[in-house]
């Protein structure tokens, strides 16, 4: 009986690990990730701390190899990146000890009922903030995207401040990637 239970647990873990890998493997070569890294290297080359907000099951922070202290926070999925402070929790309730040098929030805001509050918290959390959103996707393109279509004006209405730089990236569908100076520069 114990052997059967152990076998089922191993199978469950193998399947779920495969699902995590499948999610990341299906996304890891998207160009918007490279653009986010390019902006991060350009605007935060000396960053010592970074947080990825809403990474789902991605391994994106592993590419931010010049930053020594990494944190990942996700509401629904426990991040599992080695060498990272992995947190499952609500970002709006998260109280960091200090301002992060660099913040990533990639493909998250379009899922939220109140993206303005969330965007404001992103800007308060970091010195440099890199955000990506789907760009002008028609409503209904993805069932869980409640903010589509998103364009430059909508993103600016959420951040309430202009970006330092932005790019429109075309992967399978277009995405807007923008870098902002945070509101807390300490």
Give an overview of the whole structure.
- With 186 residues, this protein is of the alpha/beta class.
- The chain has one domain (30-181): Vaccinia Virus protein VP39 (Rossmann fold).
- It is 31% helix and 25% strand.
- It contains four helices and seven strands; from the N terminus they run ααββββαβαββ.
- The chain has helices at 2-27, 31-43, 115-125, 152-159; strands spanning 49-53, 69-74, 84-88, 100-106, 126-134, 165-170, 174-181.
- Strands 3-2-1-4-5-7-6 form a seven-stranded mixed sheet.
- The radius of gyration is 17 Å and the shape is globular.
- The chain starts with a helix and ends in a 5-residue tail after the last strand.
- The model is unreliable at 4-18 (pLDDT under 50).
Percent of residues in helices comes to 25-40%
> What is the radius of gyration?
17 Å
* Rounded mean pLDDT score: 89
Biggest sheet strand order reads 3-2-1-4-5-7-6
Which stretches of 5+ consecutive residues score pLDDT under 50?
4-18
Q: What is the CATH architecture term?
A: 3-Layer(aba) Sandwich
Order of helices and strands: HHEEEEHEHEE
């Amino acid at each position: 009986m114990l052997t059967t239970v152990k076998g089922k647990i191993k199978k469950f873990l193998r399947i779920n690990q495969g699902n995590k890998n499948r999610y990341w493997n299906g996304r890891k070569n998207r160009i918007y990730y490279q653009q986010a890294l390019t902006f991060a290297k350009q605007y935060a080359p000396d960053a010592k701390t970074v947080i990825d907000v809403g990474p789902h099951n991605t391994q994106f922070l592993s590419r931010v190899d010049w930053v020594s202290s990494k944190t990942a926070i996700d509401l629904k999925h426990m991040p599992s990146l080695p060498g990272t402070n992995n947190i499952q929790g609500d970002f709006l309730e998260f109280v960091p000890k200090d301002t992060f040098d660099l913040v990533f929030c990639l493909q998250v805001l379009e899922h939220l009922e109140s993206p303005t509050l969330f965007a404001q918290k992103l800007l308060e959390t970091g010195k440099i903030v890199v955000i990506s959103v789907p760009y002008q996707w028609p409503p209904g393109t993805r069932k869980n995207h409640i903010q589509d279509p998103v364009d430059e004006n909508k993103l600016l209405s959420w951040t309430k401040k202009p970006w330092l730089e932005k790019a429109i990236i075309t992967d399978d569908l277009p995405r807007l990637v923008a870098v902002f100076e945070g509101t807390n520069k300490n």
